[in-house]
Amino acid sequence: MSNATASSTTDPGTDTTNVADRDKARRWREGGSEPLLRVRDLRVTFQRQGAEPFEAVQGVSFDVHPGQTVGLVGESGCGKSVTSLAIMGLLPERGNKVSGTVDYEGTNLLELSDQQMRDKRGKDIAMVFQDPLSSLNPVIPIGLQVTEVLERHRGMSRKAATPVARELLDRVGIPDPDRRLRDYPHQLSGGMRQRALIAIALACQPRLLIADEPTTALDVTIQAQILALLKELVEETGTALVMITHDLGVVAGLCDEVNVLYGGRIVERGDRHDLFAQPRHPYTNGLLASIPRMDAPRGQRLVPIPGSVSDNLPWTSACAFAPRCSQPIEVCTQKMPELEEHHQRALRCFNPVEVSR
Amino acid sequence: MTDPTSEPTQPDEKATAPAETERTAYDGSDVLVDAKGVKVHFPIKRGVIFDKTIGHVYAVDGVDLQIRRGETYGLVGESGCGKSTLGRAILNLEPPTDGSVVFDGVDIATLKGEELRKKRQDIQMVFQDPLSSLDPRQSVESLLFEGMKAHGIAKNAKEARPRLVELLNAVGLPEAALAKYPHEFSGGQRQRIGIARALSVNPKLIVADEPVSALDVSVQAQVINLLEDLQDEFGLTYLVVAHDLAVVRHISDRIGVMYLGALAEEAEADDLYAAPLHPYTRALMSAVPVPDPVIEDRREQILLTGDLPSPSHPPTGCRFHTRCPWRQETKCDTERPVLRVPEIPGVGQSHRVACHWTEQIEAGEITPHEVAPQATDLSDLLDGDASLMGPASISEAL
Ligand SMILES: Nc1ncnc2c1ncn2[C@@H]1O[C@H](COP(=O)(O)OP(=O)(O)OP(=O)(O)O)[C@@H](O)[C@H]1O
Ligand SMILES: Nc1ncnc2c1ncn2[C@@H]1O[C@H](COP(=O)(O)OP(=O)(O)OP(=O)(O)O)[C@@H](O)[C@H]1O
Ligand code: SF4
Ligand SMILES: [Mg+2]
Ligand SMILES: [Mg+2]
Asked: Is the pTM of this model over 0.90?
């Protein structure tokens, strides 16, 4: 991934309208910049008394470069949230085992003490969750929740922090911020709460923002506002963004690089243009064929992926997706395919979809 | 397929009724559901002792729509716009505050006892969350048999057996499923059971409220295809209520777009997507992300500012005027636009829009402008948001 190809001198000929913003991340990469975050072989196993241990994340590896937007996409239960919580050190204290490395600029976050991790979370890494209501303190006004973070992490006095908090609320598009500072979370709409949450995250001036389904609970017109806001902030501040979602549409417009997860492992990775133009993993390909599209000719029948995740085989001895795959071969049920990297693409499949076109 | 002129069963007394000016000009003979001026207002109560009504949620506030036999009518709109409530009002599960719903020629509100029970059999519902709509203590066999027994289709389980197997077959489940319980199935399979249950009493209309939105992305297509197949096989009429525009577009013949309790626009699916006319529909369509980076990079979005207003305090005049980029100084905030066929060349009789300025907007005589965002205070509404993953307080975690 770090070897830039010869064609790196930017080609302004591409007829997409907003190339500039995305180029920033590309430049980071092509300049051979060190990744900001390097996740290697991350594993999370849940152990409950009386139940079989369950490995929710089974060896996930990916990089995030400064200024880059990286997508983690996959359906419910594939381990997206657990991955992000593990990176942030926010998994419940008991009942799980985390291994691998989460290297943030040379520090393995998994080895930090609670206090050290808390510090990192404030200063360097922030997050936004799907449900803003449950991640805001219900009994403290929004404004105070922003100023608390400013006081704690940027050493401001309450007095100095208040106008900054006001500015932050304004920055994320909350109308009438002076009044809203005093509002409690339940008085705000879902969209405004999500903006407040983003304001809190920004208060830390993070270099990395992890957003776990930040728009899933929102209406589509509000989602469009929040996505536009995130895009703008990333562009303006150079913050790296890890975007977690099950919506391939969201990923297509936002992420420089996309990781597709299935059953706790990455099955495919690529630049968003390459990945969507030429999905190689039968799961990625199948998903794209199965979702109704606004722009497809009507009357076209959808091609579903058969079965459900409950049909999955264990990764340890097979391709988990094999029972649902449209083109399995014998070896698919006999051993696990490894994630292999080729030309900025990574693929975990014995019998990938043919390259057409 | 069949010659439309050879339909013998249509009563023609309705066909001669003059078409109303503001309504579409169908002769009415093929109409299964005719909703007129439907309103559903929920009182907001406060106070421990007096239980005083302090206001109303205008969940559905004057909707006219017709659903024709054999078609799929899609109802879209954002959370809280009243889609589900309208669906429930059509089923008469939520008696309308005002207006009427005529189903298959009969005003349901006038029915009682046996007659009502019989009519109810003709309208079945498929819910969003298959697990919470299926009794966990009942086996699939008993779940499916229940309705058949209540409606006198079968007296005992044994007699019903062949029919149950047939039903399971139709929804793609094996016979062995009969002895199992809901929790033993995946989400998609449970939704199949929910659909089989609705089918078990031979309904004419199925109201499906968000039938796929709780399902895994990879499973949604299975259920969408199933609904389409069953419609062909059993000649069903569907009312599909959903917030996912791509799903609704795929499945529907006609679509109604709701905003704050009223229809903003109604058209054939193809017309609506090819040429949305109402400012809200335009914005809504432009906001849906498409899984194609090339299209995403070129997409011209109409970004709406601010919150959806609260349905307990709907804006005056056009409900959309507080967020409308085309809003005009006159009329928009004072007069409520009616749903009407606009006078635009090439726009057919089946396309209705509730905007004062449709013609001028379409002709480019009115151009969009910036709108100052407004936040909505939700203190007077109950909040049903379920708590999902995430720490209790983010400002503490940080
Ligand atoms: N605290 C926990 N204890 C036990 N199992 C858990 C816990 N948290 C998550 N899991 C399991 O780990 C798996 C991955 O969950 P995760 O929340 O990461 O999925 P996800 O990809 O975020 O899905 P969604 O799209 O539904 O949010 C799931 O099977 C889930 O049931
Ligand atoms: N029984 C009720 N009592 C009071 N208010 C209600 C009741 N049912 C619905 N409402 C309110 O009526 C409005 C419309 O609700 P409805 O469920 O019809 O919306 P919807 O379009 O189906 O939204 P969603 O997409 O979230 O399902 C909402 O503001 C809701 O809070
Ligand atoms: S009536 Fe006015 S406010 Fe309403 S949609 Fe039309 S232009 Fe916009
Ligand atoms: Mg999650
Ligand atoms: Mg609803």
From this structure: no
